[in-house]
Write a structure and sequence with these properties.
- The protein is built from four helices and twelve strands.
- By secondary structure, it is α+β, with helices and mostly antiparallel strands.
- It has one domain: Creatine Amidinohydrolase (Alpha-Beta Complex).
- The strands form three sheets. Strands 5, 6, 7, 8, 11 and 12 form a six-stranded antiparallel sheet that branches. A three-stranded antiparallel sheet has the order 1-3-4.
- Helix 3 packs antiparallel against helix 4.
- The longest helix is centred in the middle third of the chain and has 24 residues.
- It is globular, with a radius of gyration of 17 Å.
């Protein structure tokens, strides 16, 4: 199974207990999350036709370091996915690229592009991860195409919120996936089933795998102190994906537009606290 998580060796067994984060650990994850949110806000007004994806990545890395964070995506997966690991500080995925688009100096944003920004930050050894997809210069698109892409973005955001609402004690991993899937299918779109969310903490990708589909009241139970990256990845067409020869970029199989939305959350005694907010 491909995953939105980078590591191809993420455990999938049910025997290992999930760690419960202490308050001082959550404090550091909140700071990492604030940096992630700040970078997203910093990049949003720059998403205009003509800027290169490499330029966006360089600006993001400078901002992360200036705020005291570590751009943990740079070099991630070295020796596992590719020898040198991921070559940039953020992922920039365009249009039919679902996840892990590599920033390039010769790749420029165009009017009407879907632009997915996936940003992960380490702060004093603790991680936070969030992704948002934006529509660049939407007014340039024909009305029908613009409406489809706007609905796709809105659907992913609503599905993520539905998943977050299920991330509370007494619920199960299956409740999160079922809530996400219901929003997506009702809107007429598809969950890219081979891409998932994940646990997060000391490492960027930890147990458990968090599916974006499932059945209510199934899977492992949720408890206070768990930290998860809920990562919704959907498309307007087929649920199938393919990996490019670069080892990282994952595209929709049929070339249909895709959208990624993600927050890092901590499960509290009665709800989910979103850690990747300003």
């Amino acid at each position: 199974m491909l995953r939105a998580a980078f590591s191809p060796r993420l455990p999938t067994g049910n025997a290992t207990p999930f760690p419960r984060r202490h308050e001082h650990e959550l404090r550091l994850m909140r700071q990492a999350g604030r940096i992630v949110a700040s970078v997203h806000e910093h990049l949003k007004p720059l998403l205009q036709p003509g800027i290169s994806t490499a330029e966006l990545a360089a600006i993001a890395e400078e901002h992360i370091r200036r705020l005291g964070g570590e751009p943990v995506l740079r070099g991630y997966g070295a020796g596992e996915v590719t020898p040198e690991g991921f070559p940039a500080a953020i992922c920039v995925s365009l249009n039919d690229e679902a996840v892990h688009g590599i920033p390039r100096p010769d790749r420029y944003l165009r009017a009407g592009d879907l632009v997915g920004l996936d940003i992960a930050v380490g702060y004093e050894g603790w991680m936070a991860d969030a992704a948002w997809t934006h529509l660049c210069a939407a007014e340039a698109l024909p009305p029908t195409q613009r409406e489809l892409r706007e609905r796709l973005v809105r659907c992913a955001e609503e599905a993520l919120q539905a998943g977050i609402e299920q991330a509370r004690p007494g619920r199960h991993l299956g409740d999160i996936g079922a809530a996400i899937e219901q929003v997506v299918t009702r809107a007429g779109f598809t969950v890219l089933r081979e891409l998932t969310g994940h646990g997060i903490g000391r490492a960027l990708h930890e147990e458990p795998i968090v599916l974006n589909y499932g059945r209510p009241s199934t899977g492992r139970p949720l408890h206070p102190g768990m930290t998860l990256a809920l990562e919704v990845v959907i498309a307007a067409g087929s649920w199938r994906v393919r990996r490019e020869a670069d080892g990282w970029t994952v595209r929709t199989w049929d070339g249909s537009p895709a959208v990624q939305c993600e927050h890092t959350v901590a499960i509290t005694t009665d709800a989910a606290e979103i850690l990747t907010l300003p």
